[in-house]
TrEMBL record:
EC number: 3.4.21.26
PANTHER family hit by this protein: PROLYL ENDOPEPTIDASE
Family (UniProt): Belongs to the peptidase S9A family.
Class of this enzyme: hydrolase
Peptidase S9 prolyl oligopeptidase catalytic domain mapped to chain residues: 491-705
Name of the molecule in the record: prolyl oligopeptidase
Keyword Transcription part of the UniProt annotation: no
Chemical reaction(s) catalysed: Hydrolysis of Pro-|-Xaa >> Ala-|-Xaa in oligopeptides
A Pfam family this chain is assigned to: Peptidase_S9
Keyword terms, alphabetized: Hydrolase, Protease, Serine protease
């Protein structure tokens, strides 16, 4: 039986409107019928029903038909939002400005990425000298007609005369690596296929290292992949001849393996992990004829990597005995931790270092705000780098022989600006400032600290237009992530600038589970402590409401991937808290996530339902798919995902949508927007991004009661 819901939305009290515009409207929704299959799994004596498991089969005609039917309903609804086109037009206007990437040198050329404004993919240019005329080197817009094939990584040989670059088709994590002669831009016959979760690192000019899994049986988008292998490809040979360097035996079975050659081509550094946190570290001395594998770390308790070397002296970044990270030195002949010596000791702030021009640049997060210090190779502090303001700085890297580097600076109201930095005298100059129709002076960001449920102090940055009246009626998006040691630092978003200029408030808390305060902060939001993350997010919403930034009637919660889980858990635990929920590409089935693609590698953060009874019960207690209840009024929900998402398979979102549509007791809509030829998000074409944001903002404002766009402005048309 198809369920019909009629939405009655009152005109917002915020908008001055005549009697005609005050009239309510109704949109009838006929959800597609989603069949239920009697599927049950026994977990430690608890029988768990899974009626929509059939939607996990991404290759079935039934699933394909379900996707088409859901999209027909969703887009039929979105098309009726009166200002959807107006939002798309304004997003397009604001997006249409030149975006320039920081230049980098390879061989005799200076390379840089540029997007003219609305190109689906940025184009790689190069020039022979600072004053030379740039020419197109690689244009990803020509990879496919619809812009859904993207450039996803590249690496030049030591002399800069050859380049290996990876492409992603339809947003998939599976890549194809193409090798090109950089001098004449002719392709070489060294294409590598079926590459996944891989860097590309050259050994001189002879060949390069890459990582991948054996092609899985069944669906390549959802089948489990758990034995990663590091390969070496010698130029001029067939892929079938590529040698496995690490990961080919049962003893070396790891889920994530990476290889990186040091800048001087002395060492191959190998990382090996079974989860996204904690891993082993090895090296091979490439100056020797048959190099042996040398162990640096052989456990999965901490995170460490080699950032640089001087001859046999290694510089290692580690959180071993240093939750906020430190840099240590050790000789490669005996590189185990007992021989490590502090180079840049741990401080109270999290360290994220880089190197350039013969110096280390130690970037610290101070309450999620950047601070950068420059050190020499003896560990002496040279200076604190004077940054343009309060925000996020990144990109302090260059080759050792270079005397300048380029870094970017941004915050929630400052579009990303590139600065040229003189490494010796420490001066910065603007290299490129984007010409965007957005005036940062009209907006402000404030950082507040609030208490979570257990009393833990959580920082949050709230951004809005100056002069905004805190009357509890401002449309607000609360965005969060809270996992995998990921830090949410201030950054400009063209899309969110449209939200801000319409009078919207944008709030981003730094939840536990992230990396803003180091390993301890991360570990406070994992496994049996995951509820801390949801509590932090709920407390952020309560802070915004209590302080009249907004109210439940004007609050939307948003997050993607692990942040999609955050939204799913929050809306099922506290459906009264928000008016709109926007979970994107979320991990929604916590009992089965580890059975798809590389999902088992997320166990450090989540644990699995197979670990033990306590872990199962904890996951079952918050898993969004399993906590949608009959008779509950859930907020207006727009779930977004991509049919080619092989990171968090779309079945998570499919099953969550089916549960919500079946059990929703209120009048609020539950829709799922499934992008075709799109994956987890990386490489998505500009046109697709703009359309998605227009739909997200339109859905959000419409369900908050806005019959026309709030805070109208004089919109200037570019040109």
């Amino acid at each position: 039986m198809k369920k019909m819901i009629t939405m009655i939305l009152a005109a917002s009290a915020l908008i001055a409107c005549d009697d005609e515009s005050k009239k309510t409207e109704s949109i009838a929704l006929n959800y597609p019928e989603t069949k239920k299959v009697d599927t049950v799994t026994d977990y430690f004596g608890t029988k768990v029903k899974d009626p929509y498991r059939w939607l996990e089969d991404d290759r079935s005609e039934e699933t394909e038909n379900w996707v088409e039917a859901q999209n027909e309903v969703t887009f039929g609804y979105l098309e009726k939002i009166p200002y959807r086109d107006e939002l798309k037009e304004r997003l397009t206007q604001l997006w249409d400005y030149e975006k320039l990437g920081a230049p980098f040198t390879e061989g005799d050329y200076i390379y840089f990425f540029k997007n003219d404004g609305l190109q689906n993919q940025s184009v790689l240019y190069r020039k022979k000298g600072e004053d030379a005329e740039p020419r197109v080197f690689l244009d990803p817009n020509k990879f496919s007609e619809d812009g859904t094939t993207s450039l996803s990584g590249m690496s030049f040989s030591e002399d800069g005369k050859k380049v290996a670059y990876a492409i992603s088709e339809g947003g998939s994590d599976w890549r194809k690596v193409i090798v090109m002669n950089a001098e004449n831009r002719k392709l070489l016959g060294d294409t590598i296929r079926d590459v996944k979760f891989s860097g590309l690192s050259w050994k001189g000019n002879e060949g390069f290292y890459y990582s991948s899994y054996d092609k899985p049986e069944g669906s390549e988008l959802s089948a489990k992949t758990d034995q990663h292998k590091l390969y070496y490809h010698k130029l001029g040979t067939d892929q079938s001849e590529d040698k496995v360097v690490f990961g080919d035996s049962e003893e070396q079975k790891r889920r994530y393996v990476g290889g990186n050659v040091t800048e001087d081509n002395h060492f191959l550094i190998i990382s090996a992990r079974n989860s996204t946190s904690g891993g082993e570290l090895y090296l091979m001395d490439l100056t020797k004829k048959n190099p042996k594998l040398v162990t640096i770390l052989n456990n999965f308790d901490t995170d460490s990597y080699v950032i640089d070397n001087q001859g046999s002296k290694l510089y290692i970044v580690t959180n071993l005995d240093a939750p906020n990270r430190r840099i240590v030195t050790v000789d490669a002949s005996n590189p185990t931790p007992k021989n490590w010596k502090d180079f840049i000791p741990e401080t109270e702030n999290v360290l994220s270092p880089s190197t350039g021009g013969g110096y280390f640049f130690a970037e610290y997060m101070v309450d999620a705000i950047s601070q950068v210090k420059q050190y020499d190779y003896e560990g002496n502090l040279i200076r604190e780098v004077e940054l343009p303001g309060i925000g996020s700085a990144g990109g302090f890297s260059a080759k050792k022989e270079e005397d300048v580097l380029y870094y970017s600076f941004t915050n929630y109201v400052t579009p990303g600006t590139i600065y040229k930095y003189d490494i010796e005298d420490g001066t910065s100059a603007v290299y490129n400032k984007p010409n965007i129709d957005f005036n940062p002076d009209d907006y402000e960001s404030e950082q507040v600290f609030y208490n979570s449920k257990d009393g833990t102090k959580i920082p949050m940055i709230i951004t809005y237009k100056k002069g905004t009246e805190m009357n509890g009626k401002n449309p607000t998006i609360l965005y969060g992530y809270g996992g995998f040691n990921i830090s949410l630092t201030p950054g400009f978003s063209t899309a969110m600038s449209v939200w801000l200029e319409k009078g919207g408030v944008y709030a981003v808390p730094n939840l536990r589970g992230g990396g803003e305060y180091g390993k301890d902060w991360h570990d406070a939001g994992i496994k049996m402590k995951k509820q801390n993350v949801f509590d932090d997010f709920i407390a952020a919403a309560e802070y915004l409401i209590e302080n009249n930034y907004t109210s439940s009637e004007y609050l939307a919660v948003r997050g993607g991937s692990n942040g999609g889980l955050l939204v799913g858990a929050t809306m099922t635990q506290r459906p009264d808290l928000m008016k709109v929920a926007l979970p994107a590409v979320g991990v929604m089935d916590m009992l089965r996530y580890h059975t798809f693609t590389a999902g088992a590698g997320w166990a450090y953060d989540y644990g699995t339902a197979e670990d033990n009874k306590d872990m199962f019960e904890y996951l079952y207690g918050y898993s969004p798919v399993h906590n949608v209840k009959e008779g509950v009024e859930y907020p207006a929900t727009l779930i977004t995902t991509g049919d080619h998402d092989d990171r968090v398979v779309p079945a998570h979102s499919f099953k969550f949508a089916a549960e919500l549509q079946d059990k929703q007791a209120g009048d609020e809509p539950v829709l799922i927007r499934i992008e075709t030829k799109a994956g987890h998000g990386a490489g998505k074409p500009t046109s697709m991004i703009i359309e998605e944001y227009a739909d997200i903002f339109g859905f959000t404002l419409y369900n908050m009661g806005f019959k026309s766009l709030p805070n109208q402005i004089d919109q200037k048309v570019k040109g």
